[in-house]
Amino acid sequence: MEINAQDIDLLREFRKLTPYYSSVTERTRSTNFAQTSHTAVWTVCSLEARTRLNELGLPYGHKSTAISPPCVEFSRRDYLRGLIDADGSVGYTSRGLPFVSLTTASTAAGAYLCDYAKEVTGVQRAVTRNTRDGIYNILYTMEAGQRLAADLYYPGSLSLARKQVAADSLAVWGRPPGMRVAHTRRRWNETEDRILLKINSPTAAAERLGRTVQSCSLRLWRLRSGQAPTPSDQ
């Protein structure tokens, strides 16, 4: 595992926690991305260790599209924090809004983050590849980004120090006065449709269902005009 030399302390923690002999070294070289690249490398040569990792679900060879959550019981948020540390970002956007993001080629990894984040933040994200390079770019901003960062980067968690600092900084953000909260669409269900059709009054139905008169009026029109399917028992 090779990372920027500024994050070498994380590799040293890995070395302490691994029950196999391993080494942490540094090297400086020229790459396609920088004239001088100073990196830290953690190396585990034990065949038993590599075999065990493979059994836990880490594939051999190219992993970007094949990587997926472990096939045994594991710590969900610690696993996801590792993905964010490696292939994600935490911080503030150019507009000063908190965010957490993940860039991945793996459908399994992207879907797993979306499922977990839905439980933590209540925000649903679609797992869709971008058209340019077929990569998933999953983004959570504002309150959702705050909640996800606080959950993944909890105090004392093992992570890249700079991303822990960035995650901690999100806690102080507050929604500016006047910034509208994005509306999350509330889908109609058959029970509500039955009540709406039975009452047959957008105003009365709005009070009964806890919806707006406009929403009830539009839904009633859609049901009557065939734009929306009527409940199965109607």
TrEMBL record:
Annotated transmembrane regions: none
Keywords: Endonuclease, Hydrolase, Nuclease
GO MF, one example: endonuclease activity
Highest taxon of source: Bacteria
SUPFAM superfamilies: Homing endonucleases
UniProt domain Homing endonuclease LAGLIDADG: residue ranges: 77-107
Protein name: LAGLIDADG family homing endonuclease
Record organism: Streptomyces anandii
Lineage, uppermost ranks: Bacteria, Bacillati, Actinomycetota, Actinomycetes, Kitasatosporales
